[in-house]
Amino acid sequence: MKYEYPDRVPNGLNLTFAIVETAYEGEYTCMASYRENGRDFSLTRTMRVKVVGSPEKSTPPVIISPTKRIIYELKPGEQLFLHCEVTFTFLKDSPQEVWWAIDGRHSDDVTDFNETPISIGGTKIEKTLIAPRVTEKDLKRNFTCFAQNNRGIVHAQAVVRMKPPVLRYTVELACGLGATVLLVVLLTVIYHFYWLEMVLFYRAHFGTDETVLDGKEYDIYVSYARNTEEEDFVLLTLRGVLENEYGYKLCIFDRDSLPGGIVTDETLSFIQRSRRLLVILSPNYVLRGTQALLEFKAGLENMASKGTIKVILVQYKPIKKSKVKELRQAKAVLTVIKWKGEKSHYPAGRFWKELLVELPVKSRTKNLPGGQDLISLSPQSV
């Protein structure tokens, strides 16, 4: 009869293991049946089979920890924990000993003894050496873990050393570097949100009046589409704030030109006598053949050839697509300041600050309540 387990074969009253495997470890039950006085009886006996290592393959203990790769760094006064972990192969009737030695002397300061069975009858033993408060002298001692069985004795030294002190200049350097980084981040955030105010403040206190001895009569020549909504914006809003609040002298052709003159000649003359050309952009502005386009092209030519005037673009209303080549090129290289309706009416708002940055620095005196005078400089062009 073919037996189900070929490596474990019954042989009469014996069970023969042809090859021993760790999987065969467990409980085995022998069953016997007999008949006596007309009655059937059964007897059973259970035995536990434990698979252990071969004595021929047993070895001396193996120390897993401590090793040279594990370094214990402490300061004087700290508590020291040194772990010794050792594995033993199975060896019948052999002692399994683990102990710590300090400078070659057996130490009794050992707690947390732990013994754990491992495969093939082996054992893992852990012992921890504890020193409640180490001194500088203790950190220079030799801490060694020993392990022994009938196959031999082994040992491993724990690497214990004093933790190097943190150098004072390192801490100061780290603090200084951290403070510098924090300051840079803070200044970056402040500049991101308040760069207009910073530029205006600097130029109001340290800027040089560029109107002195430059031979110019007007601060700003305003170019806009006539007989449109933009004309009301120029005459009522723009002129009121720039002339009355900030003291700039504006040149508005329809207001400042003399009757009977030649429009082209007077336009070129006004532009040459102005420090800035302020262009109010709108769909009406780009219509061909208008005086506004003449002013714009004359200003660009003057800025490119002589550099005596700077062109400032203010978008009063969006222009979807312009057929004027010069305007497309100007919008690509010049800053466009956008008028946002009611949001831009406040004289101290962002629109006016952006515009002031582009205007010339000019000394002016403004009367304040209580009879005080404030002498300041209007912002210079960037």
Automatic annotation (TrEMBL):
GO cellular component terms attached to this protein's record: membrane
PROSITE patterns the UniProt entry points to: IG_LIKE, TIR
Mode of membrane association: Single-pass type I membrane protein
GO biological process entries: interleukin-1-mediated signaling pathway; interleukin-33-mediated signaling pathway
Transmembrane segments: 171-195
Keyword field contains Membrane: yes
Domain Ig-like residue range list: 60-161
Source organism, top-level taxon: Eukaryota
Family designation: Belongs to the interleukin-1 receptor family.
Protein's recorded name: Interleukin 1 receptor accessory protein
